[in-house]
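Why do we bother with holo predictions? Because pocket geometry can differ from the apo form. Keep that in mind while you read this record for flavin-adenine dinucleotide.
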Amino acid sequence: MTKYIKDFILVDRQQVTTACHLLKLRPEDGIMPAMLPGQFVQVEVKHSKSTFLRRPISINFVDTADNTLWLLVRCAGEGTTALVESAVGDKMNLVLPLGNGFNATPGGNRLLIGGGVGVAPLLYLGKQLRDSGTDVTFLLGARSDADLAMIEEFEKYGTVCISTEDGTRGEKGFVTMHTMMNKRFDLIQCCGPMPMMKAVARKAKETGTPCEVSLENLMACGIGACLCCVEDTTDSGNVCVCKEGPVFNINRLKW
Ligand SMILES: Cc1cc2nc3c(=O)[nH]c(=O)nc-3n(C[C@H](O)[C@H](O)[C@H](O)COP(=O)(O)OP(=O)(O)OC[C@H]3O[C@@H](n4cnc5c(N)ncnc54)[C@H](O)[C@@H]3O)c2cc1C
Ligand code: FES
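The structure, written out:
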């Protein structure tokens, strides 16, 4: 896919959980590049004295009616904090779309599992799957009700099941303990903290359910040049997550 270095204008910014902000960006020239669910962008951090590298952020949603690209950003450190502190009207420079996305082949039933800010790429995936006639169930996990992001948006594209560690919403516990994990699905697609993705992968292997995960290895260049994001795979040895991933079938990972 053609990649672009492109200026966007921040047209809306909302705080959606204690730690996450939703940024809506419109291309300055009005032309939204084509992108796939599971791909990501590298955002230049302008208002930070110490963050020199771009930061990788998943494509959360592409709103074609509004011509906006949505990014769900959790304040993890200085770079992401500077991003969410951008003002409406600010110009933001993005490299996009990067990496390979989730399997979006239509049909059957899918379980999309997200934890924390890892729910981000599942919204656009859910919409594309639902639009193509796939039966979509989201299983979204967080520490607490206050940490659950964009639930009303997810409800537009599938059945939403929730797990919270403190039991303030949905079933109490981790996503892997949710009763929905006992149902058969054609494919599980997952993004979230590494321990959660490994636990989901273990469950999927136990039940023989195909499963994809989206890795969030530390990245610098985002285009396969610096080798700082490598992951050891069963079929090709060390590969760059930014270029070959971030989405991998779990059979390719040495977990
Ligand atoms: C493909 C991909 C997609 C991503 N999508 C999103 C997204 O949609 N929304 C979002 O908020 N974040 C996302 N991330 C994570 C985000 O890129 C990091 O949180 C961010 O780079 C941290 O930068 P910082 O300057 O704020 O923090 P730093 O000061 O660089 O780091 C702060 C802390 O966060 C940790 N950290 C840094 N990068 C990562 C990472 N990649 N994964 C886990 N921990 C990290 C550091 O180890 C450190 O403990 C994604 C990462 C990747 C690789
Ligand atoms: S981030 Fe540079 S090779 Fe992946």
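The chain has two domains: 4-98, 109-214.
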